Amino acid sequence: MKIYFAGDGGECVLENQKNVLKSYYYAKSQKKIKIKNMLLDSGGFTAFTKGVNINIDDYIKFIKSNSNNICNYFVLDDIKDYKQTLKNQKYMESKGLKPIPCYHANEPLSVLENYCKNYKYISIGGLVPYSRKKTKLIQILDNCFSIIKKYFPIKVHGLGMTNKQALERYPFYSVDSTSWLIGASLGGVSNFDKSKVSLLTEYMYKDKDNKKLYKKRFQYMIQEQLKLEQYITKLWEKRGIKW
Hints:
Oligomer: single chain
CATH topology of the largest domain: TIM Barrel
Order of helices and strands: EHEHEHHEHEHEHEHEHEEH
Strand content: 15-25%
Strand order of the largest sheet: 4-3-2-1-8-7-6-5
Number of domains: 2
Shape: globular
Largest sheet: 8 strands, parallel
């Protein structure tokens, strides 16, 4: 399994990381992307929360002009309208692109099944609001993977999903999270443990106004996330799933 480090910030420690996710919403202001092998998110959710629109042709142009740095990219999704998301998928394909399609939690399962039938790599979004609602999150993902398992070994990306219990329960190929960035920015770090992942205050890194300590906290959080990645990868290998 791959964990992609997401979020707007932390570039001081990301250039040497192999799995980085950036949002087009923030990256579009840059003429050229410096980070290599970047997974690009359309920024559809961010745009929705801020009440702005993303121009699909501009998104396509950005992908093509940064193709040497972008390893893969998602469809421009519409979290309110799965039909529009599908239209965007087909439109981007008509322009010579191969975006990862996106199914959102609580959309008709027939939409997910359609993606599973026609693509080898898909994504599930809309999970973040349920990250602290274990029962509802499991219900949603149980329904999703009841469909996905019929098309295995299809690859599935969980957008904003590094919930340890979910990763232990479902065979995601890849996921992303901003937890490494948010915790470090606030002056705390997450310590990985096989039994749990808890947010603890590390006083040696707590001065959030000290730029040098910022970098140390980012580096620390990345290493802890990589421990989680390694643990989940080995867990699923023992269960017979190896990507």
